[in-house]
Amino acid sequence: MPTTLTAFADVTTSDSALRRFLHGLPGVDAVGLEARAAALGTRSVKTTAKAYAIDLAISMIDLTTLEGADTPGKVRALSAKAVHPDPTDRSTPTTAAVCVYPDMVATAKAALNGADVKVASVATAFPAGRAALPVKLADTRDAVAAGADEIDMVIDRGAFLAGRYLDTYELIKAVKAECVRPDGSAARLKVIFETGELSTYDNIRRASWIGMLAGADFIKTSTGKVGVNATPANTLLMLEAVRDFRAQTGVQIGVKPAGGIRTTKDAIKFLVLVNETVGEDWLSNHWFRFGASSLLNDLLMQRQKLSTGRYSGPDYVTVD
């Protein structure tokens, strides 16, 4: 039977208690994990099921621009694309969100003009997270005050890899508190681990549990700014973590793979992972997202091919 989070209250009372808990988690069988992820990636999805999967994947995208050269015009164009990904076919689903830097939140919010698309903002000195705590909290406050519906924060990988697990937990708790607005509503919090820098699958499992215990609404693989980002194996591991967490607490947590997912074939592989690991409860954009910029165009081209029988090519979709 599911317990509640109070059952884990003693786990976070001290660094030593949290370390004992995290190092007491079952070790990850790396060979078995990668083999299962690879096997699930061979599933064939065609015709009607493929059309459903493409629309579902479109609806799960956090359409992202996180560049130093971002301009208000680029953010407005991206927001328009999020609302109408294919202007020639209004049956195309909207994306889940537009993800921008904090200073572009107000621009995105105004451009969306009440559309059913969330505004997500990275925060906490994204992507490296190398800033003092007051700076990270101010970064979050600014994004929430500007109207962000969701905050994508980064953990301090240096603290985590040095074994300062309680510091990592307390950072997430502090950022979570800043997500609460004066009226009591709150922006949802996605916690980015940067799995490519965590070195081992055991570390990814431990980081997942720290995030979930600290109140993350989503756990997210990556910033998309390093060499290794979302992979089927690390996403499968995080899906197993949220499954186990809900079984023990009754609390459901979302998962967001980000970075490196560029094709329809890739996206469908991840949807199969979700369906086979955690089930239909997670097959909505409330619980699963893709962090992507180029993925949407490939999904649109494949969608057009299914509906017309012709492959239109990249000239038939808008440039982000």
Descriptive notes:
The protein contains twelve helices and eight strands. With 320 residues, it is an alpha/beta fold. The chain has an eight-stranded parallel sheet with strand order 7-6-5-4-3-2-1-8. Helix 3 (47-59) packs antiparallel against helix 12 and helix 8 (165-178) crosses helix 9. The chain starts with 14 loop residues before the first helix and ends in a 12-residue tail after the last helix. The model has no long low-confidence stretch (mean pLDDT 94).
Strand content: 5-15%
Structural classification:
alpha/beta
Radius of gyration: 19 Å
What is the strand tally? 8
What is the H/E order? HHHEHEHEHEHHEHEHEHEH
What's the overall geometry?
Answer: globular
Strand line-up across the major sheet:
7-6-5-4-3-2-1-8
Mean pLDDT score, rounded? 94
> End-to-end distance, in Å?
47 Å
Helix percent band: 40-55%
pLDDT below 50 for ≥5 consecutive residues: which ranges?
none
How is the biggest beta sheet arranged?
8 strands, parallel
Number of contiguous helices: 12
